[in-house]
Amino acid sequence: MNRLFQGFLNALKARIVPLWTKIRLFTNPSYLKGEVLRRMIQFFRKMTDVRPRNKNDYYGFFGWLVSKRLAFLLVVSIGMLSAFYVTVVQPLSAFTESENGVKTYSYRSVPLRFTEGRVRILGKSKYLAYEGNVEKGAATGMGILYRKDGSTVYEGQFEKNEFHGTGTSYYPTGQVQYTGAFQHNVYCGSGRLYRENGSLEYEGEFLEGKKDGAGTLYDGGNNKVFNGNFSKGNLLYTDFLGKSTGDAAKLYTGRKTVYTDDEYFVLDMPDISGLIYGLQGQENLQDAVMVEGVYVLQDGFAYGEREYTNIAEIAQLLGDAVYEGNTYLTTPDAVAIHVLNQTKAALNGDVTGEWNAYLADAVTVDSFDVGYSVYIYTFVQEDLRYTFFCKDRSGSFSMYLIEKQG
Question: What ranges do the domains of the chain cover?
Fold first, then answer.
């Protein structure tokens, strides 16, 4: 009986001892470290052994053969680097301290993409670039955008990182540049535009960042000079045509000088670089002097989105000229050239004559050089006639006249 029991113990021991030995081995820290290291070395050796052994180890790619193991290695490497960047690098730079409960994020941090509410965002060189509300990491709602030097670029409403809604933009000096409505980062809607010295330049409607619609221009002293319509950033001089002198005076309220002779009156409007003229003896139902034409003292012709600066471009826009050649001056022509030459040398110089100022803002034209000649191009489009005044046939012009056709 004892022999039988002893044999059973020996058999049981023969099975338990090897199992116990393996358990102790597998739970030994040194063994575990060594085994993990060995398996990792084997894994990386296998991964880095990218040499193909037969044609089944290749991918076909547009006629090229690419090692499957090499492709696998590249994919794994990119994945590991991405995982390291997302889990280690980005969390470290995701946000720093909180200021009054507002977290500060790096502008490229992944956690910012999932953040909503009020935050502070640092720019590339770690300056405070934005402070305000975000939704899914994008500036949305009220916020402030800063320059590197700490000055404010914009303060107001945002939508998906764009100025959108009501806000105020600033010059680098800190002076207000514009306050009003924005759409997609540009002025759009009602607003007020200021000069860098702080004076109000324009108040009215904007479209795509430009004056467009009804508005009022101001001079450097915040005095109203023009109250009318604008298009694509340009004053619509055609608004004066066909109006009485009384109605024209409602449009233009800036500095003015009236030139007259026995036949014409000419009103100089220096704050908008223009003059209007009419016939003094003209009879009409209102028994008022009417505006016949507008001189624009500019060497650029604004039309639509562009400004045209030579006759060749204008011919492409308005078609062939109905008249081209030298011409002598009328009284309004002479006054316009005379006024233009007070600010810059233009055409063939000033028109000599007797300009008798009997009041500070009133001048009689007793005579002028009737032999003064200019080269003109006249174009007609719809019901308007455009005349461009040139020194010669060179193609450049110094001013132009707009009149009603017919």
Answer: 95-231, 245-404
Nearest alpha-carbon partner for 265 in 293, 300, 232: 293
- Is the pLDDT at 32 greater than 90? The verdict is no
pLDDT in tens, 100-113: 678 889 888 888 88
Whether 96 shows a pLDDT value over 70: the answer reads no
Compute the distance between CA of residue 187 and CA of residue 167 in angstroms, rounded to an integer: 10
Extract the tokens encoding 163: 């100025």
- In CATH, the architecture of 95-231 is Single Sheet (2.20)
Q: Environment class of residue 180 by beta-carbon count within 10 Å: exposed (0-12), middle (13-18) or buried (19+)?
A: buried
